[in-house]
């Protein structure tokens, strides 16, 4: 997903869930920051690199794909963008190495999603925003895995867009190019994807790189042949998926606010959204590469408050000018702690399943701090239970 959904649509969902406009802004800012909080950004803050929630293109190109490099990639992308659906999935006739990657495939309504939302309960608005980014991405990124893998994430030339045509759809084969500097053209059906590599662990086969940005466009309906599915056809209906994501965010945010007693799988607050369904679907189905202005207009209509644009540098001075516990209580301090908690939880669940693709982890609540030095700050913070 892109800024239009992670920022503006999340703002709308938070308001429908009962949050005040200023709280909505904190939540959606945090949701969008997940796509920008890289090791490069954290180094500018002199913050722990372990809190990275994404990797910039240049960072990925310079990342080694040895064991340590692959584990770091997987910790980031599986924790925040491609949440695994079933860490204990069964598949006959495959190797143990293949099965470990197969178990990292993202899909909606997983046990890990429940864990993600529950982890944010009673915590900061920043934690809520991070959880909403993860939740939303399970809908856009389903069927791809957050680890480099040709045998899982690869596709072939069979890509067809389904374009609405009255009461039916017209199929048009998608044309891919591999120039990262070129812009996608939905009118001509020309999109950019990563080039096919025969190396199993190539960065080109991370996540949905082989499908380009098709999963990130809300209007897109397409069918393709994934490698993990033995190249059998899968249909993706983004408008429907994005609407489900929006309704599920409202439901989850009501739980985080305390309105709902629990968060359960396959539950969507369609009632709260019902009066806006036609307007939301019109935004989702509009054939445009960026829906920010439409979502922004909806959010401002709902709240009567102007929504400022996302500025990743907005809170840098506050964080860098703070010391000690005050740094932890700053906006970015709260975001960093929430990011460390989410990454720690997902990594621990993957490790506990017997899968080492995300590295070694421990259950901090039972064993205390061991391992990655940057997580000491998180553990000390959790022990104090001071989220004020």
Task: Provide structural commentary.
- It is built from 18 helices and six strands.
- Strand 1 and strand 2 (168-173) form a beta hairpin.
- The protein folds into two domains: 3-146 and 240-384, no CATH class; 151-238, no CATH class.
- Helices cover 47% and strands 7% of the residues.
- By secondary structure, the protein is of the alpha+beta class.
- Mean pLDDT is 91; it is low at 368-374 and 377-388.
Structure at a glance:
The chain has 388 residues and is an alpha+beta fold. It contains 18 helices and 6 strands.
Largest sheet: 4 strands, antiparallel
- Flag low-confidence runs: 368-374, 377-388
Count of DSSP H/I helices: 18
For the record, the count of structural domains works out to 2
Order of helices and strands: HHHHHHHHHEEEEEEHHHHHHHHH
Mean pLDDT: 91
Q: Trace the largest sheet across and list its strands.
A: 2-1-5-6
Q: What would you report as the Rg, rounded to the nearest angstrom?
A: 20 Å
What is the distance, rounded to the nearest whole angstrom, between the alpha carbons of the first and last residues? 31 Å
What general outline do the C-alpha atoms trace?
Answer: globular
The helix content, as a percent range, equals: 40-55%
The percentage of residues in β strands lies in 5-15%
Query: What structural class should be given to the helix and strand makeup?
Result: alpha+beta
- Number of β-strand runs: 6
């Amino acid at each position: 997903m892109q800024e239009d959904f992670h920022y503006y649509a999340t703002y709308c969902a938070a308001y429908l869930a009962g949050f005040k406009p200023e709280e909505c802004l904190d939540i959606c800012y945090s949701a969008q920051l997940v796509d920008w909080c890289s090791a490069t950004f954290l180094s500018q803050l002199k913050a722990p690199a372990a809190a990275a929630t994404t990797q910039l293109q240049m960072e990925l190109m310079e990342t080694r794909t040895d064991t340590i490099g692959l584990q770091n990639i997987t910790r980031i992308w599986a924790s925040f963008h491609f949440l695994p659906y079933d860490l204990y999935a069964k598949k006959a006739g495959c190797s143990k190495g293949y099965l470990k990657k197969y178990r990292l495939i993202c899909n909606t309504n997983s046990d890990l999603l429940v864990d993600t939302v529950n982890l944010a309960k009673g915590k900061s608005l920043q934690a809520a925003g991070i959880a909403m980014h993860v939740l939303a991405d399970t809908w856009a990124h389903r069927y791809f895995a957050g680890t480099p893998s040709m045998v899982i994430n690869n596709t072939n030339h069979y890509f067809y867009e389904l374009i609405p045509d009255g009461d039916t759809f017209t199929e048009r084969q998608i044309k891919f190019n591999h120039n990262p500097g070129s812009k996608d053209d939905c009118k001509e059906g020309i999109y950019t994807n990563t080039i096919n590599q025969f190396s199993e662990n190539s960065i080109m086969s991370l996540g949905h790189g082989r499908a380009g940005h098709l999963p990130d466009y809300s209007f897109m309906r397409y069918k393709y042949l994934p490698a993990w599915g033995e190249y059998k056809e899968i249909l993706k209906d983004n408008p429907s998926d994005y609407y489900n994501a929006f309704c599920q965010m409202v439901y989850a945010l009501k739980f985080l606010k305390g309105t709902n007693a629990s968060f359960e799988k396959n539950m969507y607050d369609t009632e709260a959204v019902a009066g806006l369904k036609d307007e939301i679907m019109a935004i989702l189905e509009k054939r445009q590469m960026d829906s920010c202005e439409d979502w922004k207009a909806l959010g401002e209509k709902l709240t009567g408050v102007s929504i400022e644009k996302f500025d990743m540098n907005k809170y840098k001075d506050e964080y860098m000018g703070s010391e000690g516990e005050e740094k932890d209580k700053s906006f970015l301090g709260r975001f960093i702690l929430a990011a460390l908690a989410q990454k720690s939880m997902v990594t621990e669940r993957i490790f506990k399943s017997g899968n080492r693709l995300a590295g070694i982890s421990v259950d901090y609540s039972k064993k205390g701090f061991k391992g990655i030095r940057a997580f000491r700050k998180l553990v000390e913070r959790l022990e104090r239970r001071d989220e004020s």
